[in-house]
Amino acid sequence: DVQLVESGGGSVEAGGSLKLSCSASGYRLDGSECVGWFREAPGKGREGVASIRDGGATTNYASSVKGRFTISQDNAKNTVYLQMSNLKPEDTAMYYCAADPSARNGPLRPEYSYWGQGTQVTVS
């Protein structure tokens, strides 16, 4: 079975930083797939935040996080990271990672095959 496990969430003051990790089991991250980070705040839909593919050569970011968040991938550890800096209260949400062989509908759209359970990020 494919499992994606997020970690690294927590509570932080505005302007602070957090680094989220997404570890995969049962699914080899070799750079050919697309891995995305999404978030969902109470009362809002799931929003694509960042994605990575082509071994890290291609990344995409939502305009709301561009310049503050960085997605990266360590294939040796089968892990994708999301470094979040200059956090704002509006970044408060449950953050999910997702993986898909192609994400053919768009890397920041939620049509991914595999999802983690999420990790909470709270910015005050």
Q: What brief labels describe this structure?
A:
124 residues; mainly beta; 7-stranded mixed β-sheet; 4-stranded antiparallel β-sheet; 11 strands; globular
Descriptive account of the structure:
- By secondary structure, the protein is an all-beta fold.
- It has no helices and 11 strands.
- Strands 2, 4, 5, 6, 9, 10 and 11 form a 7-stranded mixed sheet that branches. The chain has a 4-stranded antiparallel sheet with strand order 1-3-8-7, with no helix packed on it.
- 33% of the residues are buried.
Which helices and strands appear, and what pairs or packs with what?
Layout: E1 3-7, E2 10-12, E3 18-25, E4 34-40, E5 47-53, E6 58-61, E7 69-74, E8 79-84, E9 93-100, E10 114-115, E11 119-123
Parallel strand pairs: 2-11
Antiparallel strand pairs: 1-3, 3-8, 4-5, 4-9, 5-6, 7-8, 9-10, 9-11
In one word, what is the shape? globular
Low-confidence stretches: none
What is the helix fraction of residues, given as a range? Answer: under 10%
**Total helical segments:** 0
Mean pLDDT: 94
Rg, nearest Å: 13 Å
Residues in β-strands, percent:
over 45%
State the end-to-end distance: 37 Å
Q: Identify the quaternary structure here.
A: single chain
Listing every helix as H and every strand as E from the N terminus to the C terminus, the arrangement reads EEEEEEEEEEE
* Derived structural class: mainly beta
Largest sheet: 7 strands, mixed
Number of strands: 11
